[in-house]
Amino acid sequence: MGGISRIISVLLRASALACSVIVAGLLGSYVHHVHKAGFGAGSRILYALSLSGISIFFALLLLAPLKFSFWAFPLDFAFFIMWIVAFSLLADLSPRCTRPWFTFSWRFAWGSRKCGIWRAALAFSFLAAMLWLASCLLGLYRTFRDRKESRTDNTGVGRNKRFSRDSAAQPMAESHVQGQPGQTTVPANNVAV
Asked: Keyword Thylakoid, does the record have it (predicted)?
């Protein structure tokens, strides 16, 4: 299962990277057109654009299937929350391509209606959020499964390694050096009861 989860992790992070790149490309192009005309893009667009840039960085950093990438599940959950917020902010601007913002700002930037580009930006921002959530859940599963496996024997009985054979109380050996036969002594590493 370790190899399969590593492959799934790489696929999830690569997909999150691709979604972040697509959102960055679509919104970056819009910001470029608006800036060229001398207008501002708005804080919601800039939040989603900067979040996609940060997501690209961390997706590349965590793309390698190493053990520490599974331990980054709190970071994955934080990215899930940030992408859900970005999706909500973008969807609130114009959910159906009919609001005044879309009519005057988005259409102005692209020179035509281009509702499909807006919907693609919304869809890929939502998809990025779901991929970060899936990566978080996989990291949680792997972290706690590895933790559980480290506590059990190789036999799979479930015996805790802290109580292995070497640390258990040893029977008292009979003394053959001094004393009378039948008298026992306590080994130096055990405590007499």
From this structure: no
Strand runs (DSSP E) across the chain, as ranges?
none
**3-class SS of residue 174:** strand
Q: Residue 53 has what pLDDT?
A: 95
For the chain, what is the mean pLDDT?
78
Cβ pair 26, 120 in contact under 8 A: yes
| C-alpha dist (Å) from residue 30 to 14, 23, 82, 86, 121 | 24, 11, 21, 16, 11
Length of the chain: 193
CA-based radius of gyration for the chain = 29
Confidence of residue 94 (pLDDT cuts 50, 70, 90): confident
Instruction: Spell out the domain ranges in the chain.
Output: 2-151
